[in-house]
Amino acid sequence: MITKVEQQNFIEIAKTKLSDIESNWLQQKGTSVSAQEFEKKFPIVFSLVARFIKKEEVVWLEQELLTLETIYPGFSKGVWTKQDLARVVLMLTLNTDTNKARISSLFETAEVFELIALYKGLYLLENASEFKAHFEEGIRTNMMNVFEALSAGNPFAKKYLSEAGWNQLILKTLFVEQKLYKVEGIDAGKNENLANMLQDFVKERWAAGRSVSPEMWRMLYGFLREDVKTLIGKRNFEGKEKKTIDCVLTQNEQLNTSEFWNAIGK
Amino acid sequence: MKYIDPHIHMVSRTTDDYEAMQAAGIVAVIEPAFWLGQPRTNVGSFKDYFSTLVGWERFRASQFGIKHYCTMGLNSKEANNEAMAEQVMELLPQFIAKEGVVAIGEIGYDDQTALEDKYFRIQLEMAKEYDLPVLVHTPHRDKKQGTLRSMDVVKEHGIPPHLVLIDHNNEETAKAVLDQGFWAGFTIYPKTKMSKKRMVAVAQQYGSAKVIVDSSADWGVSDPLSVPKTAALMLENGVSKADVEKICYQNALSFYGQSGQFNEADWNQELTVDQADLHLGNSVLRGQQAEKLSFKKEN
Q1: Separation of alpha carbons A18 and A38, rounded Å
Q2: How many CB atoms neighbour CB B265 within 10 A?
Q3: If interface means Cβ-Cβ distance under 8 Å, which residues of chain A face chain B?
């Protein structure tokens, strides 16, 4: 669980990434109004970020990333805009007693970029675990930039989801052809149920004359079933896929290093 | 030539339409909040509809290389359900503040009832509060009087005409609208409202200064390619290219650009990214490629 000190550190770094004008605007709308007024205006201020803070992607210093990774594992694998940072600061300004109601209500009306910031920010809430259902709902989204906010560099899933929820995230990440190596905690998230689902998935894809990302094998080596092994024997592979499958069949030691798999993903 | 369709209800259109629109040169669309062809019965339907406009529909358009914006408002027909309209007024500010909401609209009169008048005025005040332009829908019936009345009410609320687009004009209303300094929208429908041929005559008579063409395509008989088709007919009939460009692109950009949220760079930038997609490791691009693929897979 995130601590108050970690939250504060995150906010401090985030604020240095905004211009003076942006930072003042945020201050004026957030911390310098009464808690009661802020609660009331929260959804509108959250939206207005779009007009007062730039959407540009933040460029980080090495040291900042090191600090942010300790607070938010996977941080450097995601893309953060200045608007994302400002919106997360606003989320953290809400009182923990009432943030569940406020944020839940905002989820119901949020536009695309608001959803992205919301899903990124959940992990940083002290009561993040109360938002599990929201995160699981997010996995069902059809908007792929929103899905990416859940899958790429977001530590929430590994920390708070049940195995079933986590497995849905991984299966969908592959299904919609997003990058597995960007999922935080990916190697710690291997499990037999997932490996079985993925083997059914690959059989289905092959039957349809389609392929799957070689990243998939990251989640199922060690759980390889005989039926899939037989199918592999009947197929020809090339390039990265061949290299990966050869390693899986020979149980190459490289398979146990994340560097190997990250290179496959990139 | 590039086109903007500044009035089209994409939630009612198919992906074939999006493809055809993109191929015809439409780079951006504005979707005014409207009714669904039958009245909603509770405020929750508005909430979900409004969030579709800034969520799924915007994403869907992006799949086809079209930038999607919207206007927010309670339409005149449904303003007649007072209990529900009150709740919509409570809900609206949350959506008005969102990214890519470029005006309050379409608002105005349908039957010109007292309730329509009430909510038209409340929403004009919201436009002032949030510093946004206004898109005014003019009625099908008693159009001329309804149009004149709409303009009087706008002026009564102290909103300058350059911030207001009066839509669905015809030969009877155009002069009064333009003379008073408002922007004049012309909806080109295959059968009703304006036809393409009549539009050519209007362009010849009034020039291009504040004239805007749109399709208002929705769930009824309508044509999502009205803007490029009308442009072609205007060119064929001797309207200058410069005038056609203003009527079918630049004027919409100038009018909605007043919101601060409708900029040419929004679509020009993305086109550059598209063309350079093989060698630029740009994050916008990565998103786009993935979106396109996954959209097709998911459906």
Answers
A1: 21
A2: 8
A3: 43-44, 47-48, 50-51, 57, 79, 108-115, 142-148, 175-178
**B260 → closest Cβ in A51, A115, A176:** A51
The domains of chain A are located at 4-162, 190-266
CB neighbours of residue B77 within 10 Å: 18
Beta strands in chain B (DSSP E): 3-5, 26-32, 67-72, 101-108, 134-137, 164-166, 183-187, 211-214
* Type and span of the H or E element at B202: helix B196-206
Collapsing DSSP states into helix, strand and coil, what is residue A209?
A: coil
pLDDT digits (tens, 9 = 90+) for A105-135: 999 999 999 999 999 999 999 999 999 999 9
Structure token digits, residue A31: 């911390």
Compute the nearest-CA separation of B71 from chain A (Å): 14
Chain B residue at shortest CA distance from A79: B283
Per the listing, tokens 């605007």 go with A25
> Rounded to an integer, what distance in angstroms lies between the CA atom of residue B220 and that of residue A82?
42
Residue from the list A47, A111, A176 with its beta carbon closest to the beta carbon of B55: A111
CB-based contacts of A234: which residues, under 8 Å, 6+ apart? none
What are the chain B neighbours of A50 within 8 Å (beta carbons)?
98-100, 261
- Name which of B133, B126, B117, B130 is nearest B82 in CA terms: B117
Alpha-carbon span A47 to A118, nearest angstrom: 12
Smallest Cα–Cα separation from B20: which of B194, B210, B228, B159?
Answer: B228
B287 min Cα distance to partner chain A (Å): 6
**pLDDT, tens only, A152-185:** 999 999 999 999 999 999 999 999 999 999 999 9
Rounded to whole angstroms, how far apart are CA atoms A200 and A228? 9
Average pLDDT estimate for B10-35: 97
**A97 CA: distance to closest CA in chain B (Å):** 22
Return the ∠ at Cα B165 (arms to B162 and B167), rounded to 5°.
155
Token pair 């079209």 is found at B66
Instruction: Please state, in angstroms and rounded to a whole number, the distance separating the CA atoms of residues A177 and A216.
Output: 10
Domains within chain B, CATH numbers bracketed: 3-265 (3.20.20.140)
CA distance B69 to B87: 24
Residues 6+ apart with CB under 8 A from B254: none
Q: Residues, chain B, total?
A: 299
- Kindly report the length of chain A: 266
The CA distance from B135 to B32, in Å, is 8
How many other CB atoms sit within 10 Å of the CB of residue A260? 17
